[in-house]
Amino acid sequence: MTAMEFRKPLLITLGAGCLVVLTAATIPAITSEPQFEEANQPTQSTDAASLPPDSDRLPPLRYLASNDGFLVVKPPNSGASDVEKKKRSGALVRYSVEIESGLKSRARALSEITDQVLQDRKHGWGSDGSRNFQRVANASTANIRVVLASPATVDSRCATVGLFTAGTFSCWDGSRAMINLDRWKEGAADFNSLDLYRRYVINHEVGHGLGFGHLSCPSAGALAPLMMQQTKTTGACKPNAWPYP
């Protein structure tokens, strides 16, 4: 699979004849700092293996309720400054990281992995200079919303665009990368690394949001194209989590 095949945006048809078209939009600026609630600290983290050793000493996460019932995880203050991000080349793509109520113990791992994936400058969607990903605290200003939710909620949201996820799969619902909680916890059969699968599923569903459709395994032993439906199978290919591996 050549890089050019990954780079070409597409109109995509996703299950049950649903056509999703990515269009550019003018995103209003945030005029005031949203008010966040602090997380109640869980008695134990169910994503402990994904967190750094000193995660218990990190500041508590804060959340903002979206207008459709999800909780937006406030972006961390660390990393590249807003000025540095604006200097990067490529079209600005704003994204939010969100969870369904009741999944706060999963929020930190989701937040950290999503940032690592979307802001990766070597293999990620912005590594070719065509896109500049910037995380936002207000879901209404996001071009792409990464949402971790229960299988039932994912099924419900995906059904609105004609997709049948069967309590098992994730989807792009037109504005959100809806990540199935069971897949987040368990991965998929052809992945021997849960961390690799999590990076794959975020990149894959965001890829649909960027306008890319499904691809097939090009040859036996090759890395699977990111936009292959690797949750179902990698076929004769090897699992891959990146658009530009």
Could you state the order of secondary-structure elements as H and E?
A: HEEEEEHEHEEHEEHH
The 3D shape can be described as globular
Average per-residue pLDDT, rounded, comes to 82
What is the SS-derived class? Answer: alpha/beta
Give a count of the beta strands, DSSP E runs of length 2 or more: 10
Helix count? 6
Radius of gyration: 17 Å
Low-confidence stretches: 1-46
% residues in beta strands: 15-25%
What's the end-to-end separation, in Å?
10 Å
Q: Sketch the major β-sheet.
A: 8 strands, mixed
**Portion of residues within helices:** 10-25%
Write a concise keyword list for the protein shown above:
18% strand, 6 helices, single chain, 245 residues, 10 strands, eight-stranded mixed β-sheet, disordered N terminus, alpha/beta, 22% helix
Please explain how this structure is put together.
By secondary structure, this protein is α/β, with parallel strands linked by helices. The chain has a domain at 63-77 and 89-187. It is built from six helices and ten strands. Strands 3, 4, 5, 6, 7, 8, 9 and 10 form an eight-stranded mixed beta sheet that branches. A two-stranded antiparallel sheet has the order 1-2. The longest helix has 16 residues, at 194-209. The N and C termini lie close together (10 Å).
Produce a short descriptive summary.
With 245 residues, the chain is α/β, with parallel strands linked by helices. The chain is built from six helices and ten strands. The N terminus is likely disordered.
